[in-house]
Each structure stands twice: as structure tokens, then as C-alpha cells.
Amino acid sequence: MSRIAKLIGQMCWRNSRHIDYRFDVEICKKPFIALTKGERRWVYEISTEMNKSDQRRIWTNIELQYKYYKNPIEGLKTWIQVVQKTLKATLQYIRINTDDYPTQNRVLIYWIKTQTSSVEKFVIDGSTLADGDVTYFLNTITAKWGLYLDAKLSDQFIINFPRTLAAFYVHHGEWITVVQLLLIPALSISIVHSSLTPQELKVFFELWMDLKYHKQLRLFYKDTVQNGVEIKRSDGATAFLGRFESPHSEFGLIRFCLYSNDLNNALNA
């Protein structure tokens, strides 16, 4: 571990001794950690190929270096600990693919919680049903800014939100009912492959117009067919609701956008 700390220390010395780094972790077949400062990004990929160890690839603002470990998860944990200790960096972003280490998912997320209990952005991928793992992840680590669910979930999946999010995205959104939609506390909601019917969406937007739900909602996306209309809330707030082309759906995408000069500030808060 001391050798890794020395390497990171040398990197910091070349750039600045007293600056803050953004710290990201991706848990997949080829896990890696990344450090970002301004436009500069350093990526350390954990590899099981010994001949790749310490090889570097450099682009304009990105430097990629491979680090060999027989056990990639243990290697990733080692680097997470050293980065936090050496740079005192805060882990801001986690992306995990539930398919790649299915027997270690929960143990690894629990271990990460011992390092930090929350992150700004949490992304969960996976092509197999992962209700149990996703529920465990969300009960273990809090996403403070954005939650992105690309994982496959069953129709019985239920999610509870401990706080309001700036962004909530679901790629396999068939499980989201209109009742669950009403309870999603987010400024921006995106749902792809939704099973919501036009009648249910009508109810959703009527409740928004009556100030009964989602008073803070700024953006809403759903793949379906819909003509463009302007809708007005009882307090005078006006939004556009219309159909746009989408790479995720041959029918297009519903887009709801509240007219507001504060939109960008709200989403980036």
C-alpha cells in the first residue's frame, strides 16, 4: 500500500500539493477509480493481465494507467483506501454493474459504506433482474444529487427516497406505476420503456396543475406518443408538454419542461 501512496503522492506533487480532487469509482469487469481536477483526469484501471501492469495511455487531458491485481475487487478496495487517505478525497460517484460480481455486490457496497455513507451520483447497471441488490444498495448508500437506474427490475420493485434528488433516471421503467411516479421527489424525472398509460399521465399532470404533487418538478421525460401542448398550474407556473424524437423509442419521447429562468440553477444545485 505504501508504494501506491507514494505513486499518488508524486502525481499530486506534480500538479498541486493542496487541491481537492473529484473521486469516482466504477465496479465492473474492469474496475477502475478516477481522479479529476479541473479538466485533468487520471484513471487507474485494475487489470488481471500482468503484462499490462503500469502501462500508460495519455490523451489531451486524460491519463490512463493499468494496475495488476490477481483479485480485481481487492485491488479496487486497496486503491480506494489509499486515495482517500493520501488525498483526503471524497468519493462522489459510484457506478456498479450488478452482473459482473453477483456474489460480491452487497459485500462490496457494504464495504464502501465503511468509507463513505453517501455519494453525489449513483449509477446501477445490469441486464438480469436485481431487485434485491438494488434495494440493498439504495438502503446502504445515499445518493445526494442523482440516481440512475439502468438495471433490470421486476414489476414488483418498490423504491423509497430518503431525500429530494436533482435527477432521477430509469432505463427499464416498466415497474413504475402512477402511484410511485407521484412519490418520486426529484426536480428532473426520466423514464424509458415506461408502462404508464396516457390516462395515467393525464392524472399525473392534472395533479401537478392543481399543486397537489411535484411542485418542484422541472423536467419529465417518458417514451410515448403525445402532441405538444402548453399547460398551466393553478399558481400561474407554465410548462410545455410535447413529443420529441428519441433513440430509445421508435414512438418518441414525452418531454415536460417548466418555463423557469432558475431551471439550470435548480438542476445544478
TrEMBL record:
It comes from the Eukaryota. InterPro entries: F-box_Sdz-33. Residues 161-219 form the Sdz-33 F-box domain. It holds the Pfam family FBA_2. This is Sdz-33 F-box domain-containing protein. It comes from Caenorhabditis remanei.
